[in-house]
Amino acid sequence: MKLSTKKMCAALTTAATAGLMTTQALAADLTITLGHVDPAEWQTSKKGAAAKVFKELVEAESGGRIEVNVYPNGQLGGETDLVQSAQDGTLSMAFVSGAFGKVCPEASVLDTPYLFPSAPVAWEVLDGKFGQELSDYCLDKTGLRTLAYGETGFRNFTNSKHPIQEPKDLDGLKIRVMTVPLFVEMVKAMGGQPTPIAWPEVPSALSTGVVDGQENPVSVIASNKFYEIQKYITLDGHVYGTDFFVINDDFYQGLSKTDREIVSRAAKVAGTVGRAIQQLNSAQGLGELAKNGMEITALTSEQQAQFQAAAQPAVIEWLKTQIDPNWIDKALTAVKDASSH
User: What number is the average pLDDT over the span 222-237?
Assistant: First the structure.
């Protein structure tokens, strides 16, 4: 009898637990879908970390009324697909980087070479008046509301030929760039030979000598073990990569005031966490590159100024043919203000 009673109690406990879980599952009366292309692992993936924090905060603060379903690893397509899905409403939210500039070209002003002298300056600009103005403009143009800005990191040159210490060292080097015109203009202005190649083909292109080098954040260079096929890296930080945490605005406006506040607040925290993970990855990645024999060139302020003088004016002139020049002036002024204190 004693054993039977224990079994009965266990069964009742299991049933009660199952009933509670069912009740909690049924309590969610709203579902948010969020897609990104990075791994789900929050300790090493900036978008993975941001998505996890967003999900946990929204579900907790809503008391389980809102459920967040995250689709990492490009499960719903590449970044261009995610932007399109968010625009047409088949996806509630997306965490994307370069693809956002395809639907709101003005966002490309953030890719101006050597615009941001440091990450903290970039954060102040993006989280301040300029970032809000850009968000509002792109909202009107795309129907996507930028809830927060994340970070993909500063991009740097690597190559297999020789150290790059000044712009003329790029002369004759075939540098793989993204299939983005701004990056073609940038490398061309510094004397290199820009070669647009899709990301999946980059390792092969480097290994076979189709290109001599490429440019990416340290974290990407380390995680893809480019140190096995590239000898030299220059920490010039020519472009600060920005992530955009966007939501379909019709969906957003359909939320209650309380839920809009929950979602907005969680997105801002998520963007900050993503930045922190990216900073950690960059620091650890640099150590990994050194450990695996890459020759690292850290530029002096004078050398950095040479790169900026070679690339920035040329790209700005090109940008003026693509977007309203006022956006360039606003960005430069915002950076100057943020750098002055």
Answer: 97
Instruction: Report helix, strand or coil for 225.
Output: coil
Question: What is the rounded (10 degree) CA torsion for 321, 327, 333, 334?
Answer: -140
- Which listed CATH number (3.90.1150.10, 3.40.50.720, 1.10.357.10, 3.40.190.170) goes with 14-339? 3.40.190.170
Contacts with 33 (C-beta within 8 Å, 6 or more apart), sequence order: 68, 69, 71, 91, 92, 93
* SS3 track for 193-208: EEEECCHHHHHHHHHH
Q: What residues does each domain of the chain span?
A: 14-339
> What is the reported pLDDT for 26?
53
Cα gap 270→286, rounded to integer Å: 24
Interatomic CA distance for residues 291 and 195, integer angstroms: 29
What is the spatial distance between Cα 193 and Cα 130, in angstroms, rounded to a whole number? 33
Could you tell me what percent of the chain has a pLDDT over 90? 89
Burial 318-336, CB ≥16 within 10 A → b, else e: bbeeebeeebbebbeebbe
pLDDT digits (tens, 9 = 90+) for 139-190: 999 999 999 999 999 999 999 999 999 999 999 999 999 989 999 999 999 9
The continuous run of DSSP H or E covering 296 comes out as: strand 295-298
Tokens 């379903």, residue? Answer: 69
In angstroms, the first-to-last Cα distance of the chain is 77
Question: Which letter does DSSP use for residue 224 in this model?
Answer: T
Global pTM?
0.89
Task: Tell me the pLDDT tens digit for each residue of 8-34.
Answer: 344 444 444 444 444 444 568 999 999
* Whether the predicted pLDDT of 61 surpasses 80: yes
Nearest to 76 by CA among 121, 45, 36: 36
Two tokens, residue 309: 């003088």
DSSP codes joined into one string, 26-89: HH--EEEEEE-SS-S-TTT-HHHHHHHHHHHHHHHHTTTSEEEEEE-TTTT--HHHHHHHHHHT
